[in-house]
Write a structure and sequence with these properties.
Two copies of one chain form a homodimer. By secondary structure, chain A is an alpha/beta fold. Chain A has eleven helices and 14 strands. At the A-B interface, helix 1, helix 3, helix 4, strand 13 and helix 10 of A face helix 1, helix 3, helix 4, strand 13 and helix 10 of B.
């Protein structure tokens, strides 16, 4: 029998989850839940329903895992603890500073209801976190580096679009190649924000807008751009739509460290991602963890988990003997 | 209280384990067990004992985890099931075709004795296996590639040294850069053995030996060299000792795959290692899994496990709250 998945929220991530379910034959999409009027929401899966959010509770016996596709700022802190009352859930909560608090809230609700809630799943937090953790456990005497990009930062793109006179815009975060190379050589450099990443902006200005002022406002924007070397290109809406409509991303997690009785040997562990579609890759990770949530709960586990708490085998459609034979 | 480690066998791997324990403050080396006369074996750790192998059973209350440092061909198939009667054990069994059989033997003995035995730990099998598995679970529609090197292959070096007229020698396995690049670009190439790796040999010939014959014997050796482009350099023993005494290794695990409703997006996941010392890195992985074996057994778990069965958090000296705060 298939694992029956619900999708809570149907934006980029929700659509990515729908596509990922198609790539996992042991799963099926049962329903999409939306705050919009259900009849206005068109989904790709013919066999699945579109429902109102408030219908979810009544469908608790029809869904094995609910995947939470809302935002980290206001949706997930409320929704994940709420829906784990009725379902196993997976979310991609990524507000780093609030993870401990979110974990506590989900753990309390999940422990009471007897469900499994896996939080902060995706690639960062998620696969990058896992690789940082494994590398730290192996090379205890070492140094961590995370580089992001080349990819679109939604937050920085939004910040550009809020500037007066800007009609549209997109921002790419780009790792500095020479910094990456130094880290890969095990040189353990101390790197400032500016030395690790550059920022490149493609901006569509409103007619008659003061381009010099816009460029200056971007480059000096506190927290977002002032600590980086930023390039600004003014282009037409047509060019933006044609050349910058994708949501690529990626990055590098590198740890270098020493072993030997006198720390005489160096090692470098590197994990990297090159992603055409950030939401679809995130979704692919989440769906594998939905399988884990389902299986762990079937075994009687409950409470809040993160990627650190999930034995890798739970993610795979293969059983233990197949994994040992084909992938070990 | 520290986790008390025993080392069974004191070769390159055993010495690596000893160094790795020094880098993990929650562990201590209790004893090294050797088939040699204990008084002839000098170890680095002043507080640890050197004992005969047959003394191990009597020390079962003094050691929490026994790390098996014998060879996969003849030692581990016998030793790991034997010592898991008395100890939690970790081994680095790497004879791929015999892993299912080894798993069964260790699982039977460990289940009966109530211990945890983690087998096939290291980097391949080990961290490479884990990365293959995670990447397969995420990108279900994709293709796997493993490249090894640049590094010393012990088996190929031994094969060279068995040739008549060869005094000493070392073989490096080297990934073909253009193949790596094609894989990284997501081109999903079909690659023969020759297209993936080249082999470079440094050979010390005996005085008066027929160098052309030796070179030909190497290059045409079935299974080892005949399917590869091989370069042979004749050098002096002094040069070999000076320039080729290390045991570096490493490699790349790459999976590329498609997502999207119509497989319209490509992604590449890459994990790579660059290691100055193959046995010391392998040891660092094993010691982290020794911590896991100890903790899992404390929780009441027993039986044979592989890296697929061990939740990542068990490897880290940090607790769950610390991991979530600092590494998620």
């Amino acid at each position: 029998m298939s694992i029956r998945i619900g999708i809570m929220g149907y934006g980029n991530l929700g659509r990515g989850i729908e596509c990922a379910i198609k790539h996992n034959p042991d799963m099926e999409l049962a329903a999409v839940f939306t705050r919009r009027a259900p009849e206005t929401v068109k989904i790709l899966t013919e066999t699945a329903k579109v429902c109102r959010v408030d219908e979810a509770e009544s469908m608790k016996d029809e869904i094995d895992v609910m995947i939470m596709c809302g935002g980290s700022a206001t949706d997930l802190p409320v929704q994940t603890p709420k829906f784990v009352q009725w379902f196993n859930v997976v979310d991609s909560f990524d507000t780093h500073a609030r993870i401990p608090e979110h974990f506590e809230n989900v753990d309390k609700a999940a422990s009471e209801s007897g469900h499994v809630g896996i939080i902060s799943v995706g690639w960062d937090p998620g696969m990058f976190s896992l690789n940082r953790m494994y590398a730290n456990a192996i090379l205890t005497n070492g140094k961590d580096y995370t580089f992001w990009g080349k990819g679109v930062s939604q937050g920085h793109s939004d910040a550009i679009r809020r500037i007066d006179g800007v009609k549209d815009g997109k921002q790419y975060t780009i790792p500095v190649e020479s910094a990456l190379e130094s880290v890969r050589r095990g040189e353990n450099p101390e790197l400032s924000a500016r030395q690790k990443h550059t920022r490149e902006c493609f901006v569509v200005a409103e007619e008659g807008a003061d381009l010099a002022r816009i460029e200056n406002e971007i480059k000096t924007m506190p927290n977002y751009f002032d600590e980086y070397d930023t390039t600004v290109h003014f282009i037409s809406q047509e060019e933006l739509d044609r050349d910058h409509s994708g949501i690529p991303h990626g990055g590098f997690v590198i740890r270098s460290g020493k072993t030997g009785w006198n720390d005489e040997h160096s090692h470098v562990i590197e994990y990297s991602l090159k992603l055409d579609s950030n939401p679809e890759f995130t979704s692919s990770v989440i769906v594998a963890y939905a399988r884990a949530a389902y299986r762990m709960n079937k075994e009687g586990q409950k409470g809040c988990k993160t990627v650190f708490d999930v034995a890798p085998a739970y993610l795979s459609v293969l059983d233990g003997a197949q994994l040992r034979k084909h992938l070990l």
